[in-house]
Each structure stands twice: as C-alpha cells, then as structure tokens.
C-alpha cells in the first residue's frame, strides 16, 4: 500500500496550499512513514502524523488489526492500539 496524506495550510480565506505530504508503506509487521515538504524529504516525524495514519488504516485498511506500529526515518517508533470507539 502506498497511501498519501496531504496537510493543508490556509494562507487566506480563499486559498489553501499543501505544505507536507506523508507516505506510509507496510514493511513486514510495521509501517514505514516518510514525510516530505516542498524542500524534500525530512527525517523527523511529529506524533500527529502517525496518529492520523493509524486512524485511516484502522478504519479502512487494517479493519481487523488490534494494533499498528510505525517506524520513521528519524528512528522514532510509534505504536497504537485499537479500542472500541477510540485509539490509545
């Protein structure tokens, strides 16, 4: 799977631009997260990106999964567990 998430940035009431793009790729039992800005790929990842990605995967792709793990280029690892009606 090669999912893409666009992060919008409102620069006026009539114009929205996209500053960041995130990709996730399944690698064995975990997902790799890669994060790009207009200047290129960056090796850091804030906690909001894996949380948002986990939400989409639990809801649409990994419906039967109980937990998901993400690895980032910066070496960070994020784990999420699905609970009834929420994630923790």
Helix and strand layout, with pairings?
Elements: E1 3-10, E2 16-27, E3 30-37, E4 40-42, H1 48-61, E5 67-72, E6 77-83, E7 86-87
Characteristic terms for this protein:
88 residues; 7 strands; alpha+beta; 16% helix
Write structural notes for this entry:
The protein is α+β, with helices and mostly antiparallel strands and 88 residues long. Helices cover 16% and strands 52% of the residues. It has one helix spanning 48-61, and strands spanning 3-10, 16-27, 30-37, 40-42, 67-72, 77-83, 86-87. Strands 1, 2, 3, 4, 5, 6 and 7 form a 7-stranded mixed sheet that branches. A hairpin with a 5-residue loop joins strand 1 and strand 2 (16-27). It is globular and about 35 Å long. 17% of the residues are buried.
Structural class: alpha+beta
Q: Spans of 5+ residues with little confidence (pLDDT < 50)?
A: none
Number of strands: 7
Largest sheet: 7 strands, mixed
Helix content: 10-25%
What is the terminal separation in angstroms? 24 Å
Report the C-alpha radius of gyration, rounded.
14 Å
Q: Choose one word for the global shape.
A: globular
